[in-house]
Amino acid sequence: MKEEGVSLRTIAKATGVSRAVVSAVINKKENQRIFVSQKKREEILKLVEEYGYVPKKSARDLGSQRTNTIALLFHWLTPYFSSLLEEIHRQAFKKGLEVIPYITEGYPDKEEEYLNLMRDGRVDVILAAAFTEGSPDRYMKFSSPPYNLKIVTINPPVGNIPSVHFDEEDAGRLAAQHLIEIGCKNLCFIDGGGIVEKRMEGFAHYIRERKLPVASVIQPMGLFPDGVALAKKVFNLEKLPDGIFAYNDPLAIAVLTEVLRRGLKVPDDIAIVGCDNTEVCLYCYPALTSIDTNVSQVVKIALQKVVDLTNGMEAEPRHTKVPVKLVIRESTNRV
């Protein structure tokens, strides 16, 4: 094993084990390939604390050719991505993985620059959590020779790149089904301008099968300020909808606010469903009905794919679709 510093060697000598065992305990890799008893683990960690030992990442790289670090590509820290980041950090920590977020602000050239930076081996795997213009082609490029970056997407599938994503079509179907069941007859989808619009397709398909009209209002991005402009467009439609499904929760809350501002009632006049079931659903009145996109399960599966790739294995199944569920609150609860 390569030299990792005096402190590591001292700890190994004091505990009567090899440096490989000490390294495994420090990096939370014990009992994967190297068995370490609970008593010995506690003894090692006690000395690590006493010495104030912190392994240098570069030294760790020399020993294992791994950084135990993953990059996380975001555009903005919207409520959904904030909850996603928090869950990724929580689960990654338990696996001994460090997470470094990179925020692109939706700029394709910034995403390209980050991907180029990661070619230096600073991370083991890239977890791409959102698409911007050209992202699918960009990920295909950087996951292929000569770049060969390991990428997992929390998005619908792109080529053969491992992916995990919630079932968008079913999210749309559940929203449509619920709105129709509570008596809505003129339905509308508020789209944040996402590249992938499967949730809109699921929503519209279910409605059209039942011979009901469906309208859509589309504008780039999916942030709250965009929602304010989108909400005003709803009132320019030829026929005012009585049921709305929004691309995400911030857009839904922006629409809800505009509806109330105009003196209409939610859900009596217009019922509203969001998507992602983030904490902000509870911050408005009436509280927002939303589609729970099962963030915890999405992260669990994504990190398993990350670990598989890090260990030189195939991420199987290559693409995973996670089920969703409807969480009913006051914004659609017509009594």
How would you characterize this protein structure?
It is a single chain. The protein is α/β, with parallel strands linked by helices. It folds into 3 domains: 6-64, Orthogonal Bundle (434 Repressor (Amino-terminal Domain)); 69-166 and 295-322, Response regulator (Rossmann fold, 3-Layer(aba) Sandwich), CATH 3.40.50.2300; 168-293, Rossmann fold (3-Layer(aba) Sandwich). Helix content is 42%, strand content 16%. It contains 12 helices and 12 strands. A 6-stranded mixed sheet has the order 7-6-8-9-10-12, with helices on both faces. α8 runs parallel beside α9 (198-209) and α10 (224-234) crosses α11. The protein is elongated, with a radius of gyration of 24 Å.
Descriptive keywords:
alpha/beta; 434 Repressor (Amino-terminal Domain); Rossmann fold; 3 domains; 6-stranded mixed β-sheet; 4-stranded parallel β-sheet; disordered N terminus
Short description:
42% of the residues lie in helices and 16% in strands. It has 335 residues and is of the alpha/beta class. It folds into 3 domains: 6-64, 434 Repressor (Amino-terminal Domain) (Orthogonal Bundle); 69-166 and 295-322, Rossmann fold (3-Layer(aba) Sandwich), CATH 3.40.50.2300; 168-293, Rossmann fold (3-Layer(aba) Sandwich).
List the helices and strands and how they pair.
Layout: H1 6-15, H2 19-26, H3 38-51, H4 57-64, E1 69-74, H5 79-94, E2 98-103, H6 108-117, E3 125-128, H7 135-142, E4 151-153, E5 163-166, H8 168-181, E6 187-191, H9 198-209, E7 214-218, H10 224-234, E8 243-246, H11 249-261, E9 271-276, E10 289-292, H12 295-310, E11 319-322, E12 325-327
Parallel strand pairs: 1-2, 1-3, 3-4, 5-11, 6-7, 6-8, 8-9, 9-10
Antiparallel strand pairs: 10-12
